[in-house]
Specification:
By secondary structure, the protein is an alpha/beta fold. About 45% of the residues lie in helices and about 10% in strands. Strand 7 (about 170), helix 8 (about 185-195) and strand 8 (about 200) form a beta-alpha-beta unit. Helix 7 runs parallel beside helix 8 (about 185-195).
Length: about 325
């Protein structure tokens, strides 16, 4: 069994989210109590072409371990080659295979959630990766199915386990749902009851109370938190504190949250291979909107965030927001 599941441990994963869970954001989440990290996904074929930007995507620090690298693709040979390259160069704690992404750009490659329509190929890919890196654990992430008429989590889970995957993460929505509607936790519970490998549940986890409920109602071995962590990486701290003391700690002030956002921006802009010509932050605007979600008055500043070009612009938005809402938290 993977060591982070041993001795009754119940790990909290930070879900891999393209364009958001970069190396600096992961550092913040680790500091707040996230147990297991997974990189943003990278396409296997592209990785084997030695694109330096992709290697920046999968970079991580020692402090972030246990750390996995997530890959996607539909060709068993190229997926195996990518896994070997990653383990040789980075020595991750595990390789994670993405069979869950619903994005059209991934589906058109017959990868991600598209593989849920082809369980045989999914098994071939899993087997190839497992055999390619015999000293490195391989895990798999899926969705419940393609749509409500094709719920295949049980079937796919059995295949992944049979081909050597050592853990299975399930996002409790179908491909057709995307990120809409409620996660199907009864299906996740059924898969967790059926498989012998650890099952990590994912979907609609927004607070510590959700964790308590899920632990009571399922045999999940751990949980994966995604979008709830984007605007509030302190969710890991809150959950750990609640599980230990039975109460949620005071949230960080608006000033503290802005301090974190500005520090994050400075650190990510110092990374190589970033679109940082003349300090241009336009590429980060979606990140700013995600990072401020849920803050008092956040909707009112979205227009201002959409105009941020430089760090000075971001600081002006922060100062104005703190001045108006700093005493409300």
């Amino acid at each position: 069994m993977l060591p982070w599941f041993q001795n009754g441990q119940f790990p909290l994963y930070l879900a891999p989210m393209a364009r958001f869970t970069d190396i600096v954001f992961r550092e913040f989440c680790k500091e707040q109590g996230a147990d297991v990290m997974v990189t943003e996904f990278v396409q296997a074929d592209a990785l084997t072409r030695e694109d330096p930007k992709l290697w920046e995507t999968v970079d991580f620090t020692e402090a972030q371990r246990p750390m996995g690298v997530q890959i996607f693709g539909s060709n068993p040979e190229s997926m195996a080659n990518a896994a070997r390259m990653l383990t040789d160069r980075l020595r991750p704690d595990f390789i994670d295979i993405n069979f869950g992404c619903p994005a059209d750009r991934v589906i058109c490659m017959d990868a991600g959630s598209s593989m849920l329509r082809n369980p045989e190929r999914l098994g071939q890919v899993t087997s190839a990766v497992v055999k390619a890196v015999p000293q490195t654990p391989v895990t798999v992430k899926i969705r419940t199915g393609w749509d409500d008429d094709n719920i295949v989590a049980k079937e796919v889970g059995r295949i992944a386990e049979g081909e050597g995957a050592q853990a299975l993460a399930i996002h409790g929505r179908t491909k057709e749902q995307g990120y809409r509607g409620d996660a199907n936790w009864p299906i996740i519970a059924e898969v967790a009851n059926e498989l012998t490998i650890p099952v990590i549940g994912n979907g609609n986890i927004t607070c510590a109370a959700d964790v308590i409920r899920i632990r009571e109602q399922t045999n999940c071995a751990g949980l994966m938190i995604g979008r709830a962590a984007l605007g509030y990486p302190w969710i890991f701290r809150d959950i750990k504190h609640y599980l230990k003391y039975g109460e949620v700690p005071e949230p960080p002030s608006i000033a503290e949250r802005w301090e974190t956002i500005i520090e994050y921006t400075r650190r990510i802009m110092a990374r190589p291979f970033r679109e940082k010509k003349h300090g241009d932050l336009r590429w980060m605007r979606p990140k700013f909107i995600a990072l401020t979600k849920g803050m008092e008055g956040s909707r009112k500043i979205r227009g201002s965030l959409g105009q941020v070009n430089q760090i000075d612009d971001l600081e002006r938005v922060a100062h104005a927001h703190i001045a108006q809402y700093g005493l409300v938290s």
